[in-house]
Design a protein that fits this description.
This is DnaJ homologue subfamily C member 28 conserved domain-containing protein. InterPro entries: DnaJ_homolog_subfam-C_membr-28 (IPR018961). It holds the Pfam family DJC28_CD. By secondary structure, the chain is mainly α. The chain is about 55% helix and about 0% strand. It has a domain at about 65-135. The N and C termini lie far apart (about 55 Å).
């Protein structure tokens, strides 16, 4: 850990640390290189930095009752691209477990109204769509 040299001002210390880091290449190939800083461009929305952090981390600021609906839509859309019925069943059962947990534990935000999916009915529709699509889809 770097220490301030005797007689060195705080500003001088910070400037020295930045210069040394530049010389060592610490600022090369950063993920935001070449992109404008979010502080530019006029008015910033309230709590912009929280929204940016959530986006970078892949997190959601939605209440659980709404987030689970988005997740269910994503899972149902995603199973259309799957070839293995066992994997489809596992994803549906994992989704149902999350739905049940949220229905059991959510105490803030809007009420949860999403019921667990009928896995057998969803699988039957998945099989029917695959059969209707023919061998081109099944051969992927």
């Amino acid at each position: 850990m770097a220490r301030r040299r005797q007689g060195e001002s705080h500003e001088g210390f910070v400037e020295r640390l930045i210069r040394e880091a530049q010389e060592e290449g610490a600022f090369e190939r950063l993920s935001g290189a070449g992109k404008p800083l979010p502080l530019t461009g006029g008015e910033l929305p309230e709590a912009w930095w929280i929204k940016e952090k959530l986006k970078r981390e892949g997190l959601s600021s939605l209440p659980d009752a709404i987030a689970i609906r988005h997740e269910a839509e994503a899972v149902l859309a995603g199973i259309e691209r799957l070839d293995d019925e066992r994997v489809v069943r596992e994803r549906l059962e994992a989704l149902n477990a999350r739905i049940r947990r949220i229905n059991r534990t959510a105490v803030t935000g809007p009420p949860t109204t999403l019921a667990p999916l009928d896995v057998e009915a969803v699988l039957a529709r998945w099989r029917a769509r695959r059969a209707a699509a023919g061998p081109a889809l099944r051969g992927r």
